[in-house]
Every structure is written in C-alpha cells, then in structure tokens.
Amino acid sequence: MRRVLVTGAAGFIGYHLCRRLVGEGDFVVGIDNLNSYYDPSLKQARLDRLINLRRFRFLKLDIADRGGMERFFDSEGATCDVVVHLAAQAGVRYSIENPHAYVDSNVKGFLNILEGCRCRGVSHLVFASSSSVYGGNAQIPFSVHHNVDHPVSLYAATKKANELMAHSYAELYGIPCTGLRFFTVYGPWGRPDMALFIFTRAILEGKPIDVYNRGNMRRDFTYIDDIVEGVVRVIDKIPQPDPRWDKFHPDPGGSFAPYRIYNIGNNRPVLLTDFIGILEDCLGRRAVKNMLPLQPGDVVETCADVDELMRDVGFRPKTPIEEGIKKFIAWYRSYYG
Fold it and tell me: Chain centroid to CA 222: how far?
C-alpha cells in the first residue's frame, strides 16, 4: 500500500484528490491548517467526509510552522512515499490586500515541504503551481516552453518562486519534482472566492454580480475531476533528467534535473459573458450585472497548451463547461438547500 502525503487536504482540490487516492487503495495522510481565508465550515464539511474513510489520517498543521513540520516529517511524514503539495494561500486579489500571508504560506511553507522531502528521501514531490505564472505573456495558448518571468500579482510571483525552489532541490538533492499549473478549477465543493461560486450565490439571492473588464475576459475553466485525473497520472510519472536539454538554448519546459512542469487546463477558453449566460440558463434566472474595469493583477485571457501532459501521461481535460456547471449547481443546491 502506497502512503501519500497530501497538504491542503481540506481544500477544494485536496479533498477530491484524497477521496480518489483512497478509493484506488492508497493510504493518505492529510494535513491542513483549516484557516479562515474562506468559510471554515465548508473546509470542515469536506474534512468530515474524509475522516470517515478507512485509509485516511488527518493532522491539523500549518505548513508555515517550521518546528511543527520538522516534527511531522520525523514521525508521520517519515513513512510517506509521495508528497502532493496543494496547501497554499490562494487568490490573486487577496494577495494585493494581504501580501505577507503569501510569503508565509507559499514561500516559507513550501521551503518546509522541500526540506521534509530532502531529509526523508521522498520518491516524488508533486506540487501545485498556477496558470497565473504566465502573467503578462500574451502568446496563446500558454505553453510550458514559454518564458514566465513577468508575473502581474504577488500570488503569481510566489508560485513562480515555488517552481524555482523545487528545481533547485531537484538539482541539488536529486528529488524528483513535478509542478502542475492549474487553470481556473471549478466544480462541486469549490472555493467560495471563485467566480462560479460567487455568481451562483448572488444570482440565487437576487444580488448583482461584478463583471470585470466588462465581461471581455476568457478563462480556461477546468473541471475538478479532470484536474484530479491529471494529478493521479502525474504521480506515477517520476521525472528524469532530459538528455536533450541544451544549456546554450535553455528550454523552460525541460531540465537537466529530475524536474518537469505541466499545464492542466481544458484548452477551451470561455468568454466571461458566455460563462455567465450558461450559468443563467442552468439556474433559470437572469443576473444583474455590474460592469467594471479590469482588476489589478488580472489577465485578460488564459488557455492551456496540454501537449506535454498528453504526450507523457496520455490525458487531456475534456469536461464541457455546460456539464461542469450543471454538476456544480446540483451540488450547491443540495449542500445549501
């Protein structure tokens, strides 16, 4: 039985991944600090469903707590074969309001994860990055071979830092590391700070929704089951140094270290106004739209090139936005009554 450590286990992606791994026969150790960035009762509800699983063990722990993480890797974490690191301070807009939270969790916390993996000889570290790292890049679709040195938010900068930190540990200590750039994840049990959740709640309550850039934005919305499928497949694809890597013409998508990066996105960006229209049709109600300019830190369009994911693990996300929104609404109505 493989033992997998999942950080951020009570989070949106973490919850779904833990259920999938346990269902496939793995023993999962989950950690989370259950912070109040969004409604802790939703996190607790996810966790309540996990702790009833026979091969799941939970510990409340903040990855930014260096001493706590060292003690964890000396005990429970010492027996884990694989680490899937999903815990992070999320949200582009919140990074403008509370930048220190991002350094504490996303930089210091990630260093604690890397050190734990180094000391315990973990066979594979899979970590969450973000499509936000593409920042000011206007070349669509976003490819792992593109340069990502121009972030437009601190959140994006911390995720780029994670990729650099992981690469350095892969080279220095031979720790196989794989980074996953997630593209606008949505679905049942999703985060309340994401557009689909915010819009659904407001429309059902008859309140206006804020539509940034006057709806002239495209997002590569990716359904949660597709994200989890990609993660599960990547876990078993332990990266090796790329023999074709050329130091005179360095490719951001490859490495001389046991390190890889993948996009996981739907590869079918949706115009925000069309997204709202699909949601309105599913809810059977019209939205009151408050048209606003582009927010600081936002980008106009995201779209994932998933050729490397398809080549290496034989998978590309495929859930249509109409199907995904219907499933989210069914969960929302069931959960909130």
Answer: 11
155 is catalytic: yes
Neighbours of 208 (CB within 10 A): 12
Catalytic residue among 134, 155, 169, 212: 155
Say what the pLDDT of residue 15 is: 98
- As beta bridge partners, residue 218 has 271, 301
The pLDDT tens digits for 91-149 are 888 888 899 999 999 999 999 999 999 999 899 999 999 999 999 888 999 999 999 99
pLDDT bucket at 150, cuts 50 / 70 / 90: very high
User: Rounded to whole angstroms, how far apart are CA atoms 63 and 70?
Assistant: 10
